[in-house]
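Below is how a single chain appears once it has passed through the pipeline. First comes the sequence as given, then the structure the pipeline wrote out for it. We keep one example in the README because the format questions we get most often are answered faster by looking than by reading.
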Amino acid sequence: MNQIFEWDRLFFNSLPESFLLEVIFRSTVMFTILLLTLKLAGKRGVKQLSIFETVIIIALGSAAGDPMFYEDVGILPAAIVFTTIIILYRTVTWLTGKSKKFEEFIEGKTECLINDGKFSITSFRKETLAQDEFFAELRIKSIEHLGQVKHAFIETSGEISVFYYEDKDVGYGLPILPLLFEKKNKIIPEDGVYSCSFCGNTEKLKKGTSTCKDCHKDEWVPSINTKRIT
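Resulting structure:
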C-alpha cells in the first residue's frame, strides 16, 4: 500500500544531507547576483522599493513558490534558503548601520537633479533617467518650465522631490511642455530670452547662433516665465 506522504521525498527529494550545504552556497550566490543586478538597474528600475527590499522579495518569493508547485523541490532545502536569506538580510542591515559607504552602495543616495532652475548635469548623468521621463514626472506635478523649480531631487526610492520658487521669484526657464520644447533650434530667430535644451541654462540672446556657456551645447528653446497654478 502506497503511503500518502513520502516523507523522504517531501523534505529531501532523495537528495543527500550534504546537499543542504550546497543550498546555502547557491542562495548566497544568487542573493549577491540579484543585489548587484538591481543595483546596476538604477533607482528608477525599482521605484518605491529600495534595491535591497526588492532583492528580499524576489528571493523569498522564488524560495516559497518552487516547493509549492514542483514535486522535485524538497521543502527542507527551501527552508534552508529562507534561513540563509534572513541571515544575509540581517547581515546587510547590520553593515548598512555600521558603514555609511556600504549604505550608499546598497541603497544609493539622494541626488540633486535641478538646482536653481537648471539641470545638475553631473548628477543627472549618474542616474538611469531619460530627459523625457524626467519631464513627464515634472509635468505630473503641474510644472511648465524649470524657472518654477528651485530644487529637484531623486530619492533613494526613485521618487522625484520638488521644491518650488514662490510666484514672485519665478523667472524664465526651459519649457517642458512638448509643444514648446519641440521648438528647440540651433538658429535663434530673434532677440529674446532662451534656454539651453540640454542643461536649462537661460539667458538673453541675439538673433543668430550661440553656444551655451555651461554645457557648450548649441540648441535653444524660447523661454517662458509663467507662474505655477496649483
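The CA atoms of residues 111 and 154 lie 5 Å apart.

See the next section for the split statistics.
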